[in-house]
Amino acid sequence: MIERIVEGKLEKFYSETCLLEQPFIREPGKTIDQIVKEVVARTGENIVVRRFARFQVGEAEGPAEKTG
């Protein structure tokens, strides 16, 4: 029972943290890894994700701005 709980928590962590495990923004039913594999199959070229930019929606990390 505990193994299944830990497995579920790890899977959730990886799906939120690891780029290749995250859902593709245009097709949420597919992961980035699946999209990369589809493009490799279509083009016949090896594709490697070398860098990416991470954007997070939410509160700013810096000090709060004063209003007024």
Detail the poorly predicted runs.
Answer: none
The count of DSSP E runs of length 2 or more, i.e. the number of strands, is 0
Q: Can you give the helix content as a percent range?
A: 40-55%
The major sheet is characterized as: none
Shape: flat
Question: If you had to describe this structure to a student in words, what would you say it looks like?
Answer:
- 41% of the residues lie in helices and 0% in strands.
- It has 68 residues and is an all-alpha fold.
- The longest helix has 16 residues.
- The radius of gyration is 18 Å and the shape is flat.
- The N and C termini lie far apart (55 Å).
- The mean pLDDT is 85.
List keywords for this structure.
single chain, 68 residues, mainly alpha, 2 helices, 0% strand
Secondary-structure blueprint of this entry?
Layout: H1 2-17, H2 32-43
Summed up:
By secondary structure, the chain is mainly α.
